[in-house]
């Protein structure tokens, strides 16, 4: 599967995207698992999630017209605090645009492929 994710702690979600990302997979990632007790508990406590997205051999997005619908942004902003991408430099600008960096209350940063440790430290800081 091109998309996998793991909740490493009550506040940290790690997602790996490989190859071409389909809208269907992105939608499933955004809706998440409503029965995830750890994430639900963090949200009840007023904590927001921090998400690390690892891009491995990333090829871009499929041609689904639903990518133009940005309802997922507003729905997720209430749950997210920080969003870090780790991937090839060639994807930096497009990912920052995709994540609407600077245009939403969620902090967004992009890190190079050898900077996962730095990305995790950035996500964990208070």
Summarize it:
The chain is built from 5 helices and 5 strands; from the N terminus they run E-E-H-H-E-H-E-H-E-H.
Listing every helix as H and every strand as E from the N terminus to the C terminus, the arrangement reads EEHHEHEHEH
Classify the secondary structure makeup into a structural class. Answer: alpha/beta
Question: How large is the count of helical segments?
Answer: 5
Largest sheet: 5 strands, mixed
> Could you give the distance between the termini?
33 Å
Number of strand elements = 5
Q: Are there runs of 5+ residues with pLDDT below 50, and where?
A: 34-42
Mean pLDDT: 87
Q: Shape, please?
A: globular
Residue fraction in strands:
25-35%
Strand order of the largest sheet: 1-2-3-4-5
The percent of residues in helical segments reads: 25-40%
Summary tags:
globular; 126 residues; alpha/beta
Describe the structure.
The protein is an alpha/beta fold. It is built from five helices and five strands, in the order ββααβαβαβα. The chain has helices at about 25-30, 35-45, 70-75, 90-100, 115-125; strands spanning about 5, 10-20, 50-60, 80-85, 105-110. Strands 1-2-3-4-5 form a five-stranded mixed beta sheet, sandwiched between helices. The longest helix has 9 residues, at about 25-30. Mean pLDDT is about 85; it is low at about 35-40.
């Amino acid at each position: 599967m091109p998309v996998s994710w793991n909740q490493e702690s009550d506040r940290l979600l790690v997602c790996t995207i490989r190859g071409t990302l389909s809208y269907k997979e992105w939608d499933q990632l955004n809706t998440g698992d409503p029965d995830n007790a750890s994430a639900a508990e963090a949200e009840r406590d007023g904590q927001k999630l921090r998400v690390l997205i690892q891009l491995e051999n990333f090829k871009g997005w499929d041609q689904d017209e639903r990518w133009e619908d940005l309802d997922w942004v507003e729905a997720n902003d209430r749950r997210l605090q920080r969003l870090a991408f780790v991937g090839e430099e060639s994807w930096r600008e497009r990912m920052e645009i995709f994540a609407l960096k600077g245009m939403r209350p969620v902090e967004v940063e992009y890190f190079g492929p050898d900077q996962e440790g730095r990305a995790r430290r950035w996500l964990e800081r208070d």
